[in-house]
Batch of 4 targets.
Target 1
Amino acid sequence: MIDPLPHLEWSRRIALAVARRFGFGPGSQEEADIVQTAYLELCRIAGRFEPLRVPAGGDVSHAFRCSQAEHVRGRCVREAWRLRNGGVYKTCRHPADVPFVYQGIPSCAVF
């Protein structure tokens, strides 16, 4: 495990770059949500990083950032897509471009 506190600014910069790429304005709620997502992902990956696997004499902080940058960026991009789509993940499109209509589950009187 590695302490995530020294890496907060690093994860924040990644999140701000993703927010700019998606066109979210500075100080917007979307930007704040993406930054928060980066912080949460940082805490999650810091717990599973093993500093003992870094070669002797190696920089643990640099090894952590190099190996985990794509995880933080990927989580931020996924959150940006979710925010852009109104809070849902768009996973597929119906082949006939017909909107999906939820019919509900038929109720059963006998359990």
Target 2
Amino acid sequence: MLCAASSGVPSNTIEDSYNPDVPAKPKPAVDDFSDLNITEPLPILIHATDGNGKNARATKVKLSTIVKPEDMEGFFIRYADVCKAGMVGLKKRDRKGRKAKKRKGAALPPPAGAGKA
């Protein structure tokens, strides 16, 4: 339905959204969804960042790559190597202090008046 004030451009008002005089659009045939029936695996898009958040957006490094299904195993082997290389400089957490505090706390009697109502 065309708006009388326009120059041949259909209007998009609520009144014009349903017009019983105009036939409905035909429903898509089964063949229109042929892309859902794939015969071979599709390539995968992988995104990665350097982990910098809001504070370092200007220096944030973003990467993306397309990996073919037959190259997935090799990609993940190399990806694991990169992740392991990034962990070399990390320090192991020092838990000795926390364990000693727990042992000390368990050995001490409860404070006076604790547990009384």
Target 3
Amino acid sequence: MTWYGEKLETKIRVPESLPEYVEQADVDKLIKALKSSRTHKRVIERNVLLIEFAAKSGLRRTEMAKLKGHFCGHHHSAVRR
């Protein structure tokens, strides 16, 4: 690799594989299955919200787990770090 004509001794690591992509149809099937499950209603709504948030935000599981309640709210259109 060169930078402004000078050779750099830096090696770039290329990931061996890309993360798996989940089709929207699969997300819809999962949400439909969650909504038809027999459990407490608030738990179903929470689970559906988590699946939709994960699918649309692109966050990893660990990033979602680290989010705190004050990072987002109904009056915000985005999640803050």
Target 4
Amino acid sequence: MTTTQAWSTIITKLAETSIEMQTVPKTQKTPVWFSASTDGNMIYINRLNRFINSVGDSEMRQILTYRYISGLTWQQIAFNIGEHDEQYPRRKHNRFLEGREG
């Protein structure tokens, strides 16, 4: 997707409501989340930290922070939250994201 196409998608979706989007920068393999809203005249792009801080589940906030802010692997995240299996934080993360899309 080109930059123009991405902004066109954002603007079209913003006409209906505030949105949250996942992007994968060309320089990274890890997706970056941001939220966007509009007042009809301007588009407001909110930082990743604001999105993470809005998550109600404290463990999920830790997982998101370790993954997207600190760039840790799933195994490192598991150890940091007291788990031994990398699948635990990865699955919890994936279920969380699937729930946000619906």
